[in-house]
Amino acid sequence: MSTVAIYKHPKIFKLENGKKLRNLEIAYQTFGKLNANKDNVVWACHALTANADVLDWWKGLFGNNALFNPEEHFIVCANILGSNYGTTNPLSKNPTTGQPYYLSFPEFTIKDLAATHNLLANHLEISTIKVLIGGSLGGQQALEWSLAKTQTIENLILVATNAVHSPWGIAFNESQRLAISADRTFYSNQPDGGLKGLKVARSIALLSYRTYEAYSATQLESVNDKITGYRAASYQNYQGEKLCKRFNAYSYWYLSKAMDSHNVGRGRKSITAALAEIKVNTLVIGIENDVLFPISEQKFLASHINEAQFSSINCAYGHDGFLIETDKLTNIIGNFLKESSDKKIIKLHKTA
Ligand SMILES: CC(=O)SCCNC(=O)CCNC(=O)[C@H](O)C(C)(C)COP(=O)(O)OP(=O)(O)OC[C@H]1O[C@@H](n2cnc3c(N)ncnc32)[C@H](O)[C@@H]1OP(=O)(O)O
Ligand SMILES: N[C@@H](CCO)C(=O)O
């Protein structure tokens, strides 16, 4: 059993936009033990609304007897900046005013999320990461962190993610923020401010996480005589309410802005030049029916990262398939890691 630990950063944390955060706290969980050589670290970066408990939200890929297991690996997952599962976020107390930040929280970027992972890795005395993995927003962090070159990353696994957030993705996020800001309680500075808007936002997001086929498979009416009260409508409501029970509108707002900011070309020569800088053994996985992060984005990553391998998963579910298709992920990632380790052994034999 792992519990959430908190790393309290003793210094001011400077964000990419120049703003400063005092009293940064990072909530994280670890599973397993760091071995004597400190070379068994598997670091998972979570997506938009998950938390540090990777054995819970990525079960099947992570867990006892899974590919990434605490018997063999030292698994680390940190709750990201801005999220409400323990890390500093808009509902945290601003040390200057003694009141929660709400909308005075500074905006942050994916680079900032990567920088917080680096702070935690330093605190845990981790300088080598055997496997760095993330899907969606988690993949964006993994990519930026590998570009920051603060740790030695041996294997980078990017799932259903991209090099730059697309106009389509930004448009989806903006429509969700419009829904939140249309709820006037968002400006009330209450922890439950904007919840009605958040419900709508999640229902919009669902349309990008699933597919036409997924809705047809799960929400088709069994009778033909209805003129109201459709299953698909009830599903949209249910999913919106489900998120409101465990998240807040402010975190959602800021995290969606961070996603919009993702662009590995910013501050570097170009997007392709940035990707060419990555010399890590990389596997890129795409979901064939992903409408939010279409597979062309993962093909682009794989074709510009040095010798990256590309693989795809057929999943009618769409984008969220990266959280669900854990057997397929286990198979693809397991083979990739085995091949990489075999190649390493052959290389060692040749040089011996
Ligand atoms: C504290 C925490 O919970 S931690 C965070 C957990 N979440 C995360 O980590 C974020 C990542 N995870 C996710 O985004 C999701 O959990 C996923 C993508 C993995 C799976 O999504 P789900 O919502 O579980 O699956 P799906 O889209 O099939 O919907 C099933 C749910 O909708 C309900 N549902 C299905 N059809 C309908 C309908 N017509 N009307 C009402 N409800 C419906 C089901 O009863 C089920 O409810 P439940 O979640 O209460 O069991
Ligand atoms: N379903 C994911 C977002 C899609 O990447 C989440 O709620 O974290």
TrEMBL record:
It holds the Pfam family Abhydrolase_1. The keyword Amino-acid biosynthesis applies. Substrate binds at R202, D320. Its EC number is 2.3.1.31. Residues 44-321 form the AB hydrolase-1 domain. Keywords: Acyltransferase, Amino-acid biosynthesis, Cytoplasm, Methionine biosynthesis, Transferase. One of its GO terms (molecular function) is homoserine O-acetyltransferase activity. It catalyses: L-homoserine + acetyl-CoA = O-acetyl-L-homoserine + CoA. The keyword DNA repair does not apply. It is found in: Cytoplasm. It is an enzyme of class 2 (transferase). Homodimer. Transfers an acetyl group from acetyl-CoA to L-homoserine, forming acetyl-L-homoserine. Belongs to the AB hydrolase superfamily. MetX family. This is Homoserine O-acetyltransferase.
